[in-house]
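User: quick one, fold this
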Amino acid sequence: MKSSEKYGIGKDKLPEKCLKHIEKHLIKTERLANLLNNVINTTPDLIFVKDQELRTILCNQMYARAVSKEPEEMYGRTDIENGWDPELVRGNPAKGIRGFENDDLEALAGKTIRNSHDPANINGEIRIFDTRKMPLKDDSGKIIGVLGIARDITEIKLAEKLIRESEGRYRSLFNHSLDGIVVAEIKNRKFVAANPAICGMLEYTQEEVMRLGVQDIHPPDQLADVIKQFESLATGKFSLAADIPVMRKDGTVFLADIHSCKLNYDGKDCLLGVFRDITEHRQLEDTRLKLQKLESLGILAGGIAHDFNNLLGGVYGYIEVAARYSKDERVSAYLDKAMLSINRAKSLTNQLVTFATGGAPVRKATPLSPFIEDVTKFSLIGSNVTCSFDIPSDAWHCNIDKEQVSQVLSNIIINSRQAMPNGGTVLVSAANIYLKDNEIGSLTEGEYVKISIRDNGVGISKEMLKKIFDPFFTTKQTGTGLGLAVSYSVIKKHDGWIDVESEPGKGTVFNIYLPASKEIPTNASSKTDSEQKGAGTILILDDQEEMCDSLRELLGCFGYSAVCVKDGRDAVKFFIEETKAQRPLTAIILDLTIPNGMGGKETVTEIRKMDSKVPVFVSSGYYADPVIADPQAYGFTASLKKPFAIKELIRLIEGS
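Assistant:
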């Protein structure tokens, strides 16, 4: 059929020439219509036209397929009749659904409507469309329907959602990170972003940080090196700058490791830096190294103390022998002074071991006077500081390790002396008190002696007071920061408490609380030569010839005979022989450590297998060993610290 006949134009109505001309234009128009139809039906958008009753009068294939229909099946029907979800058609404000009809009615009213979040149920799946609706007009301008075009943007919306969620997650990480994060433009090194953590580290507000740059947060004298590090990081060759000094607003400096990466931020080449404050980590590392050194010092101190006290033991013994045989009062007086000097040397070596290792205390009931007075006066020798005392005559005794508590008192008094460079007075007082549970620190209920050491020096700030007992904390250029830490440890091991009160410019008072002891201190006096009634054999294990020689001589003065051996195996052998011969030993003295031989600990184990009652005393020049602090736990009767006086040994023998 010709195009003219298709549109009802016959030959009999128009001239042939006109018919051909019309037919030519109709063919062209038909081709354009077909082309337009193909375009409309191949576009991925949904295109539709509705009349004034909102019935579909024209649509493309995509629109019809959305409800599994052909376009011809859609014509003359409303959206609901065509299978669209009624809720999506009519709308549901509670769910944020505007509804197809509402937009259609506004378009019929002459408005052009855009709904960029228009949900539609497409073959059972909710898809999101960007829909535009506009009034359809005839040639006279009258609105005759609605023209709609809807584009499926579900994937775009999903991508936008993922981007928002991703940005939200990264923003949350950025804002809540404990590490400081800052973004700096590489070109001018100015900050373009900063998280709250870096603001807190630098002690600036967010607004202040955004006005700063790299050059503003590092010490000026180290800025050149920092800039070099920044430039190296900006090349991307490195991602970590370690131990970088960072300057706070108040000028104080902390160390940070800075991890970095390059990024494009708002179209600018930038460097993102993650700052981790490593100051505490470095302090812990320094403390660990110091503790390692201290451990090495402890080993060295133990060796020195052992050897030195062993040597002192021989010297002490020979002086005692000389004093017993001397008839010259002047010589005897000098020998007594020599013994006092040796006792001080013994105390110093004990302090060295306690300082380095904090050995367990060997506690004995001790009167605090004149013990406190002697330590105080000795600690102030050569200074311009005087001392006064307020110690009642009825002050309770305390069960203490004299050498260790002496070190505590000495540490505090030396601190007081240093706090008064222009001179002053140290007041030392003691008082008997009764405490309830946890009334002072963690002390349990009971009787205590409170020792107070007060000075009128420069005082200590509140910030310093919080750290004063911390290991390695010191305000002195030459201090170790261990004196008060060791003092705290010693008092705790004595089941006591130590605290401090101070204000700048008003002096300082240290308070020490020690449990009172009902035990009566051992009488230091010994029997005179005329009273001695000792008899029997005493076995001595010691590798020092001087020690054996002096002990043999001194024990002889008290009626005992001494047999010395240099190895624990020989001691066990001698003990077995004497036992078989029914010659029981009066006592045994075992040196704890025998180089390249069996020491006292192993020897007493063998002896106790055969005899549980014979008195066995352990002696050592190294006091930090737990055997010295608790000899009974290892099978010994008691312990002796070298150098020891013969009277001390005789008391143990006669009391066992």
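User: anything notable?
Assistant: The chain is about 40% helix and 25% strand.
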